[in-house]
Design a protein that fits this description.
It contains two helices and six strands, in the order ββαββββα. By secondary structure, the protein is of the alpha+beta class. The protein has one domain.
Length: about 110
């Protein structure tokens, strides 16, 4: 089964919640995914940046900074269920590894 995700700021992320955490350098996130789909104006400013992703089956996952967690290179993965979040986590980890390998080859 193919596991592909793409950014979709218009996907319905309502009701998603923390499922996993992942360690990725914050510069990598900003460089590869661009401006946040949501920047800072949540209740009590707990979510400082967020990107919304959708997969080929219409499942939705979010990658977000919770209370400055990205400063520690820790990002939160939200989804409607753990299975969806796990698929996104696998895709994101593999994407990160591929991109880092490309940088090493270019250097």
């Amino acid at each position: 089964m193919k596991n592909y995700w793409f950014e979709n700021k218009d996907a319905d992320a309502n009701g998603t919640s923390l499922q996993f955490r992942i360690s990725i350098d914050q510069d990598f996130v900003w460089d590869h995914f661009g401006p946040s789909h949501f920047l800072g104006d949540s209740l009590n400013d707990k979510v400082l940046a967020e990107w919304i992703f959708e997969n080929q089956d219409g499942k939705v996952a979010t990658l977000y900074d919770w209370k400055g967690s990205s400063q520690r290179n820790e990002w939160h993965i939200g989804a409607h269920d753990a299975e969806t979040a796990h698929l996104f986590e696998i895709w994101l980890s593999n994407f990160h590894k591929r991109e880092m390998q490309k940088q090493k080859i270019r250097a």
